[in-house]
Each structure stands twice: as structure tokens, then as C-alpha cells.
Amino acid sequence: MAEYVGAVDQGTTSTRFMIFDHSGSEVGRHQIEHEQILPKAGWVEHDPAEIWDNTCTVIERGLSDAGLSLSDLVAVGITNQRETTVVWDKNTGKPYCNAIVWQDTRTDKIASALERDGHGDTIRHRAGLPPATYFSGGKIKWIFDNVDGVKEAADKGDAIFGNTDSWLIWNLTGGSDGGVHVTDVTNASRTMLMDLETLDWDDELLGFFDIPRSMLPEIRSSSEPDGYGPTREDGPLGGQVPLTGILGDQQAATVGQVCFSPGEAKNTYGTGNFMLLNTGTEIVRSQAGLLTTVCYRFGDDAPVYALEGSIAVTGSAVQWLRDQLGIISDAEQSETLAGEVEDDGGIYFVPAFSGLFAPHWRSDARGAIVGLSRFNTGAHLARATLEAICYQSRDVADAMEQDSGVHLDVLKVDGGVTANDLAMQIQADVLGVPVSRPVVAETTALGAAYAAGLAVGFWSNTDEMRENWNESKRWEPNWSDEQRAEGYEGWKKAVTRTLDWVDVD
User: Fold this and answer.
1) CB 217 within 8 A of CB 185
2) Could you give the CA distance from residue 133 to residue 109 in angstroms, rounded to a whole number?
3) Is 268 helix (H, G, I), strand (E, B) or coil?
4) Cα separation values, 110 from 137, 180, 313, 407, Å
5) How high is the pLDDT of residue 504?
């Protein structure tokens, strides 16, 4: 009897396969990093073929390392880096170019032109998103304008688009030999092309980018009892295990954190930070620089929406200390180094490498370290990097309260950076509320597993999932109100120093 659910977690830096039991406990995993391709300043790419190959490997190795086989899995879900754009030939299965990653800023002129031409308010109202480099629509348009033959292939129906969820499902279900071209509502809501109310591609929005509807995947729910299509027999799921769940990574983390009631929020600390607040079946249109997005839709139930604050660079700022500056040898050392000093020594680091996302939405911003004196050391910079993660989350939390009227009593956290105790203590200090980490911190993969398992009755309802959630650790704030206010004022001043650095038409 099948006793487990699998989840493919296709992230920004790696792909992994995780296996969970009914209690939501991890019983196996395998993970492989993929290359970060950086052709020019502001450009970030991935090789879709490498991601597909890695996906096959992590599924096979994840099962074998756990001593399990495909027959032990009742279903598999997929969660993925959102907005990262793949365009490929449906006849050959070959991408026309590398995937353009969500962090990439090459579409800044396309985004600014949308505002200049008066389309910004329509996109905000209908799609819930501001015109920005972040989202998929502008990336497709850039490929049309810069990769020979793609627009013509799209008009003929040969070139098709998807975020990495669609790319993987197409390959898992047959590829050029009958692959299913689908996505779910959460991923579709990150394109600037879907109407939040109809949950369908919008012809006027498509017209802003000159994108033919025929190249887009069919939009389905996040949890499909009948699955998204049979898996190929020669693929890693062997035609045996149904694919029944899809969630964009941050929505998956929200489900994994069992934030099923309006007013419940989580913050995921990964390459970037992403705070989501469940707003129920109500579409709350942000006035404070947040995104309105689909949180999840289970089967034929009404869609549940969320407010989201997306931050481009948090954990990747720690990677920058390691890979570009070389002041730490691994991410864990950032805590040790930062712990050598009692404070930041008066410096602030604003890691606006890809501009500033929520709530500022300034593609003209670039990273800055301010307040430096000869007194400062690498330890101060390491601490300022951890503080930057937390101050950016404070920016978003304040905007969320302004939009929703909900004041956080506690912040649920997950993701890799939550293993850094010092960073989480700083987060509690900066916010002035407790920070709570669950026993299963890898909630992104768990959320995809929940969506897949719910579809096939492995979990009968969301109450069962709630029972699985247990707190691992809690951090209480230590700073005084004065210390908190003074630190945040300095941060806001530092942010102003990053603006107007890049000229955007």
C-alpha cells in the first residue's frame, strides 16, 4: 500500500525531491544545485535542460536513498520558482534560449513603457501586479524582441511558454510526444497576463505584450483529483504515480505553514524573502506596494487570495558574501562572523542587486553599503547583511498592516535562513513580535505534497494538515522600542541612497 507523497521542489538555486509521510514528516530527499548563468549585469539565466535532467535524477535518487520505490508513492506535487520564464518548441522540446529568471532586470524598459503608455493601472487592477521586471509577461516580450524566430513560431503555434512548473510537467507527461501543457492558478497569477477574477488569460493584457493565447498553458487548480495528465512510462515517475498538485513556491510555503484562515501569514527566507497574508476569498487590492495574488485553489473550491510582499535579495546577499567577496566560506559562517560584534557598527547594507521589490518597486535602485568608517570590519558587514534581511521584511510587514488592518501577533517563518538563530533573533527584534519556526522548516515542498495528497484523499481536509504543524523554536524580541525605532529610521535613510542609480527610460 502506498504510504507517502512526493514533492518536486524546483527552486532558484537547486532542484530537490522530498518524500513525506501522513504526519508531514520528511522520510527522504535528494537535492542538486544548477548553474547560475550571469551573462551581463542584471541578467540571470538558467538552463532548462539542466533543470529537467536534475529533476529526473533527484526523483530517482531520492527514492533509492530512502529505500523506497515508485509504488510507495500515492501522488506527487510540484512547486517551483515563480515567474522564471521558459519558451520552447513544442515539436522538438528544445528551449529557444535559457530561462530568464525572476531576479533578472533586463525588461526594465518594457516595464517602464507599460507605465508610460498608460497600461499600469489596468495591469494592477486586473492582474494584481505592478508593471515590473519581476513577472513573466515582460520576459516573453523580451524573448520575442531579441531571439530570432520566436515570435513567428509563437504566432504559428509552435513556441509555447511556461514557468518551470509547466516545463517540468510537459516533460514528465510526454514532452514532444504528447506532453500536457498546463499550469495552476498561483503560477498564472504571476505573469501579468491573468485576470484575478475570471482566473483566465485576459485578452487585453495579452495585447499589451503581443502574446498569442495559443502559446500559454491551460490554467488548472492547485490540487487536481484527476491529475494533470498521465506521466510518461520512460520518465522518472514511470507512468505509475499521478501528478495531482501544483503550487508556486511561496504559495506552497503558505500551505505548508497551514495558513488556511484569513489573517494568517508566513515569511519564507530563501534566495529572496516572501511574506504572504491569507485574505480568504476576498481580493484585496493593495494601496501600499504589495501584490495581490492567488494563494491556492483546491479542486473546484473557490479560490483563496493573498497579499504578498516580495523581496528580491535576502539569502542571496549571504551568497554574495561567500561567492563574490569571499569573507565567508559557507552560509553558516555568516552567523558566526556576525556574532563576533554586538551591532552593525553604524553601517547598513541595502542589497538592491535587482532593484527594490515590494513595497518600493524601484528598478532604478542598486545595492549600497552606507555609513562606513575605518572602524568597520567584515563582521559588521556580515551583521548588516542579516539585518538587511530583517529590515526588508519589516518594510513588507508594515505595508501589509496598512493594506489589511491586520497586525501580526506572531510571524511564522520557514526556509534556509531560519537555521540562522542570530538572523531570526534580529527579525524578532526588528519587528517587535515573536518569530516562530515549525519542526518541518522545508514548508515549500511540504505544501506541494499537501496539495497533491489532498487531491487523492491521502489527507482528507485541511484540519488534518493543521494537526501536523508543530513549533520547533520561538524567538522573542529583546530590543527596546527606542532601539527598534532608531534602527529602522537608519534603514529607511539607507534605502534612499540606493535610488536613481540606473537610468530607466
Assistant:
1) no
2) 9
3) strand
4) 10, 30, 22, 36
5) 64
> CB count, 10 Å around CB of 23?
12
The three-class DSSP label of residue 349 is strand
Alpha-carbon torsion angle 227, 47, 52, 246, nearest 10: -20
Distances (CA, A) of 425 to 254, 272, 398, 463: 22, 18, 19, 30
Angstrom distance (rounded) from CA 120 to CA 459: 41
- The grid coordinates of residue 362 equal 524601484
Q: Which of 280, 230, 298, 291 is nearest to 447 (CA)?
A: 298
Q: What are 418's strand-pairing partners?
A: none
Pairing of strands 4-10, 73-80: parallel
Give, as one character, the DSSP assignment of residue 87: E
Contact yes or no for 133/354 (Cβ under 8 A): yes
Q: Is 200 exposed, middle or buried (0-12, 13-18, 19+ CB in 10 A)?
A: middle
Q: Which of 467, 414, 443, 469 is nearest to 77 (CA)?
A: 443
* 107 grid coordinates: 525588461
pTM of the model: 0.88
Which parts of the chain register pLDDT below 70? 1-2, 504-505
403, 336, 345: which is closest to 377 by C-alpha?
Answer: 345
d(CA 57, CA 36): 19
pLDDT of residue 220: 97
The predicted pLDDT at position 505 comes to 60
Measure the N-to-C terminal CA separation of the chain; round to a whole number of Å.
Answer: 60
Confidence at residue 310, expressed as pLDDT on a 0 to 100 scale: 84
HEC per residue, 205-257: HHHHHCCCHHHCCEEECCECCCCCCCCCCCCCCCCCCCEEEEEEHHHHHHHHC
